[in-house]
From TrEMBL:
The lineage of its organism: Bacteria, Pseudomonadati, Pseudomonadota, Alphaproteobacteria, Hyphomicrobiales. This is Sarcosine oxidase subunit delta. InterPro entries: SoxD (IPR006279), SoxD_sf (IPR038561). One of its GO terms (molecular function) is sarcosine oxidase activity. Pfam families: SoxD (PF04267). GO terms for biological process: tetrahydrofolate metabolic process. It comes from Bosea vaviloviae. Coiled coil: none annotated.
Length: 91
């Protein structure tokens, strides 16, 4: 799989680290219940199909990216710089 980094161009997926789903919103740590933090950390969907994911370009520019791809085919639809993407925004 090749990911097109907005800064470095098309690169092999081995240059990137995968974090997971780009949509969950972290609960406010000071006001969050233990159950809410547990759900945020441990309970994640594993959808088949279109999915927004966080990837880190560790072997390149060190940017965090939001990659929209189909988990069945690995076809990448979009790559955006994470800091320019509204957190938790629907794709």
């Amino acid at each position: 799989m090749r990911i097109t980094c907005p800064y470095c161009g098309a690169r092999d997926a081995q240059e990137f680290g995968y974090l997971g789903d780009a949509n969950p919103q972290r609960p406010d740590g000071m006001d969050a219940t233990e159950a809410a933090m547990h759900d945020y950390v441990h309970l994640r969907d594993n959808p088949a199909g279109r999915h927004r994911e966080l990837w880190y370009h560790g072997a390149g520019c060190h940017a965090w990216l939001v990659v929209t791809r189909d988990t069945r085919t690995h076809a990448i639809e979009a790559v955006e710089v994470a800091r320019k993407t509204k957190a938790g925004a629907a794709a």
